[in-house]
Design a protein that fits this description.
There is one protein chain. The protein has helices at residues 16-27, 39-49, 65-79, 102-130, 153-173, 198-202, 213-225, and strands at residues 7-11, 31-36, 55-59, 84-87, 133-138, 178-185, 233-236. With 245 residues, it is an alpha/beta fold. The chain has one domain: Rossmann fold (3-Layer(aba) Sandwich). A seven-stranded parallel β-sheet has the order 3-2-1-4-5-6-7, with helices on both faces. α1 (16-27) packs across α7, α3 (65-79) runs parallel beside α4 and α4 (102-130) runs parallel beside α5. The chain is globular, with a radius of gyration of 17 Å.
Length: 245
C-alpha cells in the first residue's frame, strides 16, 4: 500500500509520550509505524487508536539492531517511504551515583543509547536513498540542567550524549536534506510517575506543575515540520533547564 501520505516511525509508541506522539501524527494525516517491546500492549494501542491501515505495529526491542532493520523494512513495504523518525523509547533510573549497578547501567545503555543509535542508523540509510527526512530525538531536560534533588548521573550521561549526537548528525546528514533535532522534556505526567509522587514533582518545576504528554507531542510535531531548523535541542520543561531555583 504505497501512498503519498507522509510516514513516521515512533519508538516507545504504546503509552505515555510515545502514544501522544502517535495520536498527534495520526491526527495530522500521517501513516504511523509504532514500535514497542510488548506486542500485546502495542496491539491494544492499535485497537484503541481505531485508525485502520494507517498504523502499523512492529513489536520488538529497539536495543536489538534487527528490530530497527525490521521497522524500516516493514515501513517501506507498507507505505513506500519514511519521512520522520521519532526516537522516543527510553527508561529513567534515578539513584545516587554510587548505587548504580551493572544491570541499571546496561538497561540504560541498551534502551536509551543503543535504541536511538540502531533506529537512527537504519532509518538514516533509507532517508539518504530518498534524499530527505527528519529525525527527532526525545532526550531529557535534566541533561541540560542536573538537579541535586534528583540524582541521576547515568541517565544524564546518556541523554546528554544524545543531545550531542543530535548536533553531530545534523551536520553529517545535512548534505542529504535530513534534519536532526531533539526535544528535551522535563517532568511529564506519564505512567512512569505514580500519582502520589506528583506533589513532589510539581515542587521541582519553576512552572509549579508537571507537563502533559501532548505538550511534548506538539514540540515533536513542530520540529518534524520546521523547514530551517536542525541541530536544535528544544527544552519543554516549564523552565527547569533555565537554572537552579
Amino acid at each position: 500500500m504505497h501512498t503519498t501520505t507522509p510516514t513516521v516511525i515512533i519508538t516507545g509508541a504504546s503509552s505515555g509520550i510515545g502514544l501522544a506522539i502517535a495520536e498527534t501524527f495520526l491526527a495530522q494525516g500521517y501513516n504511523v509505524v509504532g514500535n514497542a517491546r510488548n506486542a500485546a500492549r502495542l496491539e491494544q494501542t492499535l485497537a484503541a487508536l481505531n485508525c485502520g491501515e494507517r498504523f502499523l505495529a512492529v513489536a520488538g526491542d529497539i536495543a536489538e539492531p534487527n528490530t530497527a532493520r525490521q521497522l524500516v523494512t516493514h515501513a517501506v513495504q507498507r507505505f513506500g517511504r519514511i519521512d520522520v523518525l521519532v526516537n522516543n523509547a527510553g527508561v529513567f533510573i534515578a539513584k545516587p551515583f554510587i548505587e548504580y549497578d551493572q544491570g541499571d547501567i546496561a538497561q540504560l545503555i541498551a534502551t536509551n543509547l543503543m535504541g536511538t543509535v540502531n533506529a537512527s542508523q537504519a532509518v538514516a540509510a533509507q532517508m539518504i536513498k530518498q534524499g530527505s527526512g527528519r529525525i527527532v530525538n526525545v532526550t531529557a531536560s535534566i541533561a541540560l540542567q542536573p538537579l541535586q534533588r534528583v540524582p541521576s548521573a547515568i541517565p544524564i550521561l546518556i541523554k546528554g550524549g544524545l543531545n550531542q549526537l543530535t548536533r553531530a548528525l545534523a551536520l553529517e546528514l545535512a548534505p542529504h536534506n535530513i534534519q536532526v533535532n531533539a526535544v528535551a522534556p522535563g517532568l511529564i505526567d506519564t505512567p512512569m510517575h505514580t500519582p502520589e509522587t506528583h506533589e513532589f514533582l510539581c515542587g521541582l518545576q519553576p512552572a509549579g506543575r508537571i507537563g502533559r504528554p501532548q505538550e511534548i507531542a506538539d514540540a515533536v510535531l513542530h520540529l518534524s515540520q520546521a523547514g530551517f531548523t536542525s541541530g536544535a535541542i528544544l527544552p519543554v520543561d516549564g523552565g527547569m533547564s533555565s537554572g537552579v531555583w
